[in-house]
Amino acid sequence: MDGGDYVQWGRSFLKARKPGHFQRLGPLSHLGAAVPYAMAAKLACPKSKVIAFSGDGAFGFYSMEYDTAIRHNINITTVLGNDHTWGIDKTFQVAYYNRAVGTDLRPIRYDKVVEAIGAYTEHVDKPSDVGPAVGRALNSGRPALVDVKIRSGASPLADAMIARRTGG
Question: Whole-model pTM?
């Protein structure tokens, strides 16, 4: 799990089956660390299937680590939530200041970026297609990325943080 708000959705449904099989980086911290951490987890447990969750902003920090994953055959799968927004920043700015500044990102198709490096990729824009796409990615036998088009919106964690701060 990366830092940021999108990954809170993954935390809500992805459960560890054994101790030590789930790692999160803190509530909203370490932007971009999901891919290198996933690679380390795969090297530590080579027979395990490893899934990283990252938002598009955070993924931009370490997206080129897919080159390392491909060169060294480190088969991880990233589920990327792509809404072209620094989501948590936008959520907090709107909640606290009634406006957002500097929160829009360019619409980058990261599936195309890492496909050019040699990864297995899929672009998904319907919720019903996410599970099958992740399954195909996990079974592709190579580093993979599923670029999921998502709508911008706060996670329950972000909403709770805002309510706590504003007394709501």
Answer: 0.84
